[in-house]
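[agent] plan:
  1. take the single chain provided in the ticket
  2. run structure prediction with default settings
  3. attach structure tokens to the ticket
  4. add a short note for the reviewer (M.T.)
[agent] executing step 1
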Amino acid sequence: MISAQFLLTALVVVLAPGTGVVYTLMMSLGQGRRAALPAALGCTFGIVPHLLAAILGVAALLHSSAVLFQIVRFAGIAYLLYLAWQAVRRGGALNIGAERGDNGFFRIAARGALINILNPKLSIFFLALLPPFLSGNPATATSEMGLLGAVFMALTFAVFLGYGLFAAAARDRLLTSARAMAWLNRGFAAAFAGLGLRLALEKA
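[agent] step 2 finished; step 3 output follows
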């Protein structure tokens, strides 16, 4: 069940750059080490609804219902575009180098959670990822999926926190250059917009 193959597969998936990684890097660059923990924590807990959906079979319903899938998808697209705007707007909540007094622990974590909650592909992803690693015993399938999901979440948190601490370590050097900050904000905004576009082009 929890095999080396599963751990390697999960690690490769978690390491791949996505919305959660981009968000964690951005918050850690903007606010330092104190933002790395809530960003990683929020992105990790944003996985929970999708994991539960996969375990309970709701993911199959989401995949089969075009209307439900589109509602969640367009909400996710709108949120990613909002984050892109917040990255480039002077004084925006995600703008690196701007004053961000409202970005407390809860706000940072809540944004990270929403990024994953509003991605309908995650439910379908877990429905595809976890079953191949089950023992094949129907009586323990639910508990096994829960355990595999918990391991995946632990890996997600550890990797994202690592990304965040790495970004925080580079923060002082990067923030001394106004030009670097401007390009970072544009780059992160482009990343969020690009991820939103990719989500818009995907089909259920």
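[agent] step 4 note for reviewer: The chain has a mean pLDDT of 79.
[agent] ticket updated
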